[in-house]
Amino acid sequence: MSRLDAPVSEATFRSPCMSGNTQRTSASFRFPSLFVQVVFATILGLLVGLFAPSVAPDVRWTTDLFLKLIVMAVGPLLFCIVALGIIGAGSLKTVGRLGGRALLYFEAMTTLVLFVSVGITMLLGAGKGIRFVPTPGDEQLVATYSGNAKHLHESGVSGFLLSLIPHTPVSAFTDGNVLQILFLAILCGCCLNQMGATAAPVITLLESLSALFSRMMRFIICLAPLGVFGAMVTTTARYGLGTVLHLASFVLLYFVMIAFFIVGVLGSCLKICGLNPIRFARYFREESAIVLTTTTSDAVLPRIMEKLEALGVERQVVGLVVPAGYSFNLDALSIYLGLAVIFLANATGTHLTFWQIGTMLVTALFTSKGAHGVPGVAIVVLAATLAAVPSIPVASLVMLLAVDWFIGIARALGNFAGNCVAPVVIGRWEKKIDLEQAKRVLGMH
């Protein structure tokens, strides 16, 4: 057999960026890991954005290309993983119990961090040194966000439930609507679970498609440094380093809150589950770098699921908890809403009663659900929250627009961390995690 006719093994075909470990591509050269590539792209993008900002419009396409490829592949992959997870559960009672516990955990965590953030902000009096008076220009600037917020607020629970159902099975994928894909996958998984031997060909097809799109995602993730470079050049050129000094107290306080949430709250959850928080964070360091620079966790959704399965969390837990968490477990967004409401009230000199604060917090808990993927999601949800108590001028949102990208860095990282830890907690609760395997993968043995 000639060399060209020889079969290509997986080891031979593997791209260097498909693993967090450095791959040897020749006897004298070690290809940098994906983490190193992302860090290098971040630094290079920062320098180009600072010293050659005119280049920004020419490299923006790299980020768009990366995110479009992710959206293209993540829908089918997500559908296959969720459906197969339900089929693998064996019993719909098990699926129902797992989903119920996941939602209970999500609501408990988001409610806790929301009220804690409000308490800390009130205690520190953030925003009291600002005297903001809205202008007509400010109102025009936030008009788009207010319009989206009005739709989000008026649709209510019924509108949210109706939005879960796609017009057609295909439209859920063409629109890239994660919630609709999740709903369709759960429905198909439950039906296939009850069909017995008749479902065998469909299940085999789903398994093959899952393997196909998993491999596709591995190739796409190789372009992460390119996407990160474009994102850093564009954002640095647009805002500049001086912008971070504006509203510095608000930004700094939010970063501190997110750090406390990740280290204190999520770290404690991991310790209770028997895992080392530092090693756990190191395990997801490549994904963290991508989230920090692109300010979105969408790009790493498949990687999170793949790594959690490798960690020992059962597939049915990963397949249900992670996708649902992207819409229901937005812990960092809840922290932002609690901080922003009180900050804007203080900045505009608006006195809020405990009843008004409670009304806005309850509104925030509802409006934030399913808001993942809405353009300017944080500002939109915040505007919908403020609409519950019109005392605070909606135009005051213009203050936060200037620093929304910087806030988005911590917000994306906080949501990402929460959705990495949630499957571990639910898996431990359900006894569907192999702790010995997890400790071995994390190097705790």
Automatic annotation (TrEMBL):
It holds the Pfam family SDF. SUPFAM superfamilies: Proton glutamate symport protein (SSF118215). It is found in: Membrane. The keyword Transmembrane helix applies. The chain crosses the membrane at residues 34-53, 65-90, 102-126, 181-206, 218-241, 247-270, 335-357, 377-403. InterPro entries: Na-dicarboxylate_symporter, Na:dicarbo_symporter_sf. The keyword Transmembrane applies. It is a multi-pass membrane protein. Keywords: Membrane, Transmembrane, Transmembrane helix, Transport. This is C4-dicarboxylate transport protein. It comes from Gluconobacter thailandicus NBRC 3257. The lineage of its organism: Bacteria, Pseudomonadati, Pseudomonadota, Alphaproteobacteria, Acetobacterales.
